[in-house]
Design a protein that fits this description.
The chain is of the alpha/beta class and about 375 residues long. Helices cover about 35% and strands about 15% of the residues. The chain has a five-stranded mixed sheet, sandwiched between helices. The chain has a four-stranded mixed sheet with strand order 8-11-10-9, sandwiched between helices. It has a two-stranded antiparallel ribbon with strand order 5-6. This is Thiolase C-terminal domain-containing protein.
């Protein structure tokens, strides 16, 4: 990964989603010090009828390798895996991953409503009539974990508190004011056990990541961050088809990514985890192997996730709970991971115990309602 960038994020009322794609892409290319003419691979999802075709045309690139994989929030980790494979196989030299969304501005302007459900066709027709909203699916999974393992709502709230503490160090975060466990618990109930602050924010924004072959990396403005191992997995389409609400597909994608990278969870310096809801952070930490199954509540309840003083800093930019969440947020995880490994995170920079920069990080995206997962292990040379 040789170039990463965000577009303007947060409250962006005067730009289209296409414009946010372009802004992020231009900034990522500038970050790498490369011209768009080197881009021969392109990956995009979520915008337009033919996402990679329409967005590539808007950006003025003509790729000979494309990917439009769409598996929700994990899309971008899966695409990064595909791009790395394509480059290794010689099918592309420089692959641009780009995303942009005006999810917040669209609701504000009345161009769309909140996403209560992904639809009522196919397998979902058997759940949608019974009130299985998107949030309710995650809430039921969280409640199952609480019943099985004694996880408490206060422990889940600690995830939101720590995300906000990390966001307070990030000038680009949408919400930076610290919150307490009481603040989280006293908020309006959205879907039991989730109150408002257990749920991600809705923002506008875009992100881009440029992956390139090793010979290009020598000419880049910054040192590259290497893709060491990846894994992907899809689990279920409906809750009735989900074997265990307390196990996410990251249990498979993480095992594959760590195995292919030749590292262990204990070797990782920080983690960027998809956090549309507090429970996602908790259960993904378990499934990636940072703690045993059922011990996630105790793990997150001891301030381990903080940039300052945490044993395993998680969502160092504030995550989807506090920094930004314009829809499929997986690409933002990769941007933050690269910035951390390059030592460009400012006040929120993670440091090893010896004061040095982190050497290894992991980004794990989740799609749908724990339907899919993509995990990428990244490292410095």
């Amino acid at each position: 990964m040789v170039g990463v960038a965000l577009s303007d994020c947060g409250r962006v009322d005067d730009a289209t989603a296409y414009a946010l794609h372009a802004q992020a892409a231009r900034r990522a290319l500038a970050d790498a010090g490369l011209d768009r003419t080197v881009v021969d691979g392109f990956a995009s999802a979520g915008l337009g009828t033919l996402a990679p075709v329409e967005v590539a045309e808007y950006l003025g690139v003509r790729p000979t390798w494309v990917d439009s994989t769409s598996v929700g929030g994990s899309t971008w980790e899966v695409m990064a895996a595909h791009a790395a494979d394509a480059i290794a196989a010689g099918h592309a030299n420089a692959v641009l991953l780009v995303y942009g969304s005006t999810a917040r501005a669209d609701v504000r302007a009345g161009r769309r409503t909140g996403t209560l459900s992904f639809g009522a066709g196919g397998p979902l027709q058997f759940e949608a009539p019974y009130g299985h909203t998107l949030i309710a699916k995650y809430a039921m999974a969280a409640r199952r974990h609480m019943i099985e393992y004694g996880t408490t709502v206060e422990q889940l709230a600690r995830v939101a508190v720590q995300a906000r503490a990390n966001a307070a160090l990030n000038p680009e975060a949408m919400f930076r004011t610290p919150v307490t466990v009481d603040d989280v618990l006293s908020g309006p109930l959205i879907a039991d056990p989730f109150t408002k602050l257990h749920c991600c924010l809705r923002s506008d924004g875009g992100a881009a990541v440029l992956l390139a072959a090793e010979e290009y990396a020598r000419d880049c403005r910054t040192a590259p961050v290497w893709v060491l191992g990846t894994g992907e997995h899809v689990s279920h389409a409906t809750l009735s088809g989900w074997p265990d609400f307390t196990v996410s597909p990251a249990a498979v994608s993480g095992r594959l990514a760590f195995g292919r990278a030749g590292v262990r969870p204990a070797d990782i310096d920080f983690a960027e985890i998809y956090d549309a809801f507090t429970y996602m952070t908790l259960v993904t930490l378990e499934d990636l192997g940072f703690c045993a199954k059922g011990e996630g509540g105790a793990f997150v309840g001891e301030d381990r996730l903080l940039v300052r003083g945490g044993q395993l800093p998680v969502n160092t930019d504030g995550g989807g709970l506090s920094a930004q969440h314009p829809g499929m947020r997986g690409l933002f995880l990769l941007v933050e991971a690269v910035r951390q490994l390059r030592g460009e995170a400012g006040e929120r920079q993670v440091r090893r115990r010896d004061g040095g920069l982190p050497r290894l990080g992991v980004a794990s995206g989740t799609g749908g309602w724990f339907c899919s997962s993509g995990t990428v292990v990244l490292g410095r040379e």
